[in-house]
Specification:
single chain; about 170 residues; mainly beta; 4-stranded antiparallel β-sheet; 14 strands; about 0% helix; rod-shaped
């Protein structure tokens, strides 16, 4: 008897791993073949595991990536039907580092920082007069790590913050 596994479940996703589990295929399964491909395109990879196992952890995956998955039971007489599914790794999120202020004038200052990890979509820069007052913010592209704040109040100290913004939320 050949058949397909059932009920593919993806759990415990991290930025580089995901756990797959499924209900066993009927008959005497020798091995399971797990195939996974980035849904947006890329090289397909596969692993095989023992036929008496119905769980595995995929490793060395790309962060923040959706994968097309399939699990196929392999029998002595050939392969059963593939069980398709999808899974997604988590996005690496974090904070920019090493905020530096330079080239200050009476109404401008240049900010620069070290990039946050992962796929930053945008950076949000918030600046508020340290003695109190209205906060302002600007956003810039995620591949940029420098900006110039303009129209600042002369002789004013500012509280500054830079936040990385990801598809899944702020860092």
């Amino acid at each position: 008897a050949r058949g397909s596994p059932r009920n593919l479940r993806v759990s415990d996703a991290t930025t580089s791993t995901m756990k797959l589990s499924w209900s066993a295929a009927p008959g005497k399964v020798q091995r399971y073949r797990i195939t996974y491909t980035p849904a947006a395109g890329g090289d397909s990879k596969e692993v095989t595991i023992r036929g008496d196992t119905t769980t595995t952890v995929l490793r060395d995956l790309e962060q923040g990536t959706r994968y097309a998955l399939s699990v196929t039971a392999l029998y002595a007489s050939g392969a059963g039907d593939a069980l398709p599914g999808q899974g997604e790794t988590l996005e690496a999120r974090g904070s920019p580092r090493n905020l530096r202020v330079s080239d200050a004038t009476t109404s401008t200052m240049k900010l620069s920082w070290s990039a946050a990890p992962g796929k930053v979509q945008r950076y949000r820069i918030t600046y508020t007069p340290a003695a109190g007052g209205e906060s302002k913010e600007v956003t810039i592209r995620g591949d940029t790590t420098t900006t110039v704040l303009r129209d600042l109040e002369q002789g004013t100290r500012y509280a500054l913050s830079v936040t990385a913004l990801y598809a899944s939320g702020p860092g």
